């Protein structure tokens, strides 16, 4: 007689040569090993079920709620992972949004300076033209005419610099939007792989 599963035989309920009936107990096995395996498997199943519920809660953006059959210690551990993952996502998103907000503020400031230069540049151009005539007629010195020309050139270059700065900041904002989407995408991809 050989048991179908490995383990310890506790009792042999028959004697050699004895006639037996179908369904009669022949051997009693020690159930401790099987029960231990069963408990381990059951705990692992409960843990994986909790993990799956956590992943589903994270993917749907809903709270991870304890159910009445959840083991308290196991739930606390899985909930801690849920909280840590959510905080990490929120921190990454907040950091990127702060960068984006700064770029938007810088862009607004740049656009204001650009607008001011666009409005004042014609006046510098008119002054340069007026002084050019005064220099030609001999009513102003050549140095004063050159000074007005320098002011106009500076303002035109400042305006171009502000235009380039505005384009750069707009590109930064676009890149920030892409990074925000990437943070969310990476988070979801990690959860999908875990699921």
Any overview of this molecule?
This protein has helices spanning 32-60, 72-137, 142-194, and strands spanning 9-12, 27-29. The longest helix has 66 residues, at 72-137. A two-stranded antiparallel ribbon has the order 1-2. With 195 residues, it is mainly alpha-helical. 76% of the residues lie in helices and 4% in strands.
List the main descriptive attributes of the protein structure presented here.
76% helix, 195 residues, mainly alpha, single chain, rod-shaped, two-stranded antiparallel ribbon
Average pLDDT across residues?
Answer: 92
Radius of gyration: 40 Å
**Helical segment tally?**
3
Question: What is the number of beta strands?
Answer: 2
Structural class: mainly alpha
Which percent range fits the helix content? over 70%
Beta-strand content: under 5%
Write the topology of this structure.
Elements: E1 9-12, E2 27-29, H1 32-60, H2 72-137, H3 142-194
Antiparallel strand pairs: 1-2
Helix pairs in contact: 1-2, 1-3, 2-3
């Amino acid at each position: 007689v050989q048991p179908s599963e490995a383990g310890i035989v506790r009792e042999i309920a028959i004697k050699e040569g004895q006639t037996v009936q179908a369904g009669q107990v022949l051997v009693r096995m020690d159930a401790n090993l099987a029960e231990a395996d069963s408990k381990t498997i059951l705990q692992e199943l409960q843990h994986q079920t909790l993990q799956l519920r956590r992943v589903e809660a994270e993917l749907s953006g809903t709270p991870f709620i304890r159910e009445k059959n959840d083991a308290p210690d196991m739930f606390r551990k899985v909930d801690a992972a849920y909280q840590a993952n959510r905080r990490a996502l929120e921190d990454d998103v907040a950091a990127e949004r702060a960068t984006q907000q700064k770029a938007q503020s810088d862009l607004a400031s740049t656009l204001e300076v650009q607008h001011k230069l666009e409005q004042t540049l014609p006046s510098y151009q008119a002054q340069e033209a007026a002084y050019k005539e005064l220099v030609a007629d001999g009513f102003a010195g050549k140095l004063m005419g050159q000074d007005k020309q320098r002011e106009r050139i500076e303002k035109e270059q400042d305006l171009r610099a502000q235009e380039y700065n505005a384009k750069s900041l707009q590109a930064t904002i676009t890149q920030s939007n892409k990074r925000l989407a990437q943070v969310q995408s990476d988070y979801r991809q990690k959860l999908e792989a875990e699921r």
